[in-house]
Design a protein that fits this description.
By secondary structure, this protein is an alpha+beta fold. The chain has 13 helices and 14 strands.
Length: 466
């Protein structure tokens, strides 16, 4: 904006200079260094004839009369415009022997005086246009040749697809080359017609309009540029499972304005490309191996290390758990009455579903710990009955009121109520027969959506990945 204002100020300065020079430095006001002391009548007559001869050769000054006395030229009559009157004054002042010019020319405001010159000027322009028809035809032929060659070259989509990384960039480059060819054709045609001033005016107008439109559609342009960057260096591919700024789903397509996801609930989600380009993107599909983890607690009196080893051995025995990297189990922290154990294992997402595998692994480790004699803490309530002492002379003591307190443990003499039974008999071997096959319902919906929809997609499997 500052550059635009500075350029505009410079342009106004350059154009205002000649205007001020014309207004203040008129040749009619310039006087010779010296004026002769005497003036002969024959000199005045000679000056008059010379000025009349000049005015007779100019159509717009043919009605101007001249009288010269003592070197003072007086101009009378009518002209079509004030510009013609100033021209007459300038010509009279340049004749040798004229001391000064008295301009008394009136502007012709009659209907005939205004219409006839305009009709004559229009007829002259028409005749000039007819004479210039061959040149205009040649300029038009040059424009068609340059622009047509550009359209012919840019229409070869196969060529641009080889040069550029994907279809979207190919179309963008082709459109840019097409616009450049049209501009070159216009420049060549106007240069041939010697209309460079018109070309400069058009380019200046295009710059101002482009600047205004740039501010008006700033967000749209930002999304468009971001789409170009995302299509060139693709952080995801079609049907990838991603998380973009907390929005999780599978990628349907990348358009010129937004990235379209299908959430795990089956809903469509559109995120502007400008936000996607600047967002933190988590791609679950990029790496087939993924780790799940969960936490279980055992009694504080149990051997936590033994419980962790038992859980790890159980995870290793599960068919969907990978052997490399191996499962991991450790004591995460010691609570008031429990030991919190953390278990983790790796799966192949192309063969096992993450949620199902985590659920099956947690169930298997829980059953193995219970089978191994480890105690998983359950909610325990302690009921306490307070019997207040009887006061002397008072009646019988009031009925005891139960007080309930919750704690993770039990002491001697306390009544306990445990949670539901686990249903695992002593000596029984835990068996896990869960279905951990990947859930591909959303994946199939995305593939169907991409096959049915006719919207353009900027994602390509051939483009480089970040």
């Amino acid at each position: 904006m500052l550059r635009f204002i500075a350029a505009l100020f410079l342009l106004l300065t350059l154009t205002a200079g000649p205007a001020f020079a014309q207004a203040g430095d008129s040749p009619a006001e310039a006087v010779p260094a010296t004026i002769a002391a005497e003036s002969a009548p024959e000199d005045d007559a000679r000056i008059t004839r010379r000025i009349e001869q000049l005015f007779s050769e100019i159509d717009v000054l043919s009605n101007v009369a001249v009288t010269v006395e003592a070197g003072v030229a007086t101009l009378t009559g009518e002209t079509a415009s004030t510009e013609a009157a100033r021209r007459a004054e300038t010509l009279a002042a340049r004749v040798e022997g004229v001391a000064t010019v008295e301009n008394r020319i009136q502007r012709d405001v009659s209907l005939g005086g205004r219409v006839d010159p305009a009709l004559g000027q229009a007829a002259e322009q028409l005749r000039a246009g007819v004479r210039a028809l061959p040149l205009v035809g040649l300029a038009l032929l040059v424009f068609v040749a340059i622009a047509g060659f550009g359209w012919l070259v840019t229409g070869r989509k196969a060529l641009w697809r080889r040069v550029t990384p994907n279809l979207f960039v190919a179309e963008l480059v082709a459109a840019s080359a097409r616009a450049v060819s049209v501009v070159l054709g216009v420049v060549a045609a106007l240069s041939l017609l010697d209309a460079t001033a018109l070309l400069g005016a058009l380019l200046g107008l295009a710059g101002v309009v482009g600047l205004a439109l740039g501010f008006a559609v700033k967000d749209t342009i930002e999304n468009y540029v971001a789409s170009v960057m995302l299509s060139v260096r693709q952080p995801f591919r079609p049907n990838d499972h991603v998380v973009i700024d907390g929005h999780e789903g599978r990628v349907i397509r990348l358009t010129s304005r937004a990235t379209v996801l299908m959430t795990l609930d089956g809903n469509h989600l559109r995120i502007p490309n400008a936000a996607v380009f600047k967002a933190v993107i988590l791609n679950y599909t990029r790496n087939a191996d993924r780790r799940f983890d969960f936490k279980l607690g055992v009694d504080a009196d149990d051997d936590g290390e033994a419980a962790a080893r038992a859980g790890v051995e159980t995870l290793k025995a599960l068919p969907f758990v990978l052997g490399d990297p191996e499962p991991l189990g450790f004591i995460e922290q010691a609570g008031d009455s429990t030991l919190d154990l953390r278990f983790s294992a790796w799966i192949n997402q192309t063969q096992s579903d993450f949620v199902k595998s985590r659920s099956a692994g947690l169930a298997a480790v829980k059953m193995a710990l219970e089978h191994g004699g480890f105690t998983l803490p359950e909610p325990i309530y302690r009921l306490r009955f307070d019997q207040p002492p009887a006061l002397p002379g008072a009646g019988p003591a009031p009925e005891a009121r139960p007080r309930q307190a919750s704690e993770a443990g039990s002491g001697p003499g306390t009544g306990t109520r445990t949670g539901p039974e686990t249903g695992t008999e002593s000596g029984a071997k835990p068996v896990i027969a869960a279905d951990t096959r990947p859930d591909e319902a959303i994946k199939r919906r995305v593939e169907q959506e991409r096959a049915d929809a006719g919207d353009p997609d900027l994602l390509s499997t051939d483009a480089p990945r970040e």
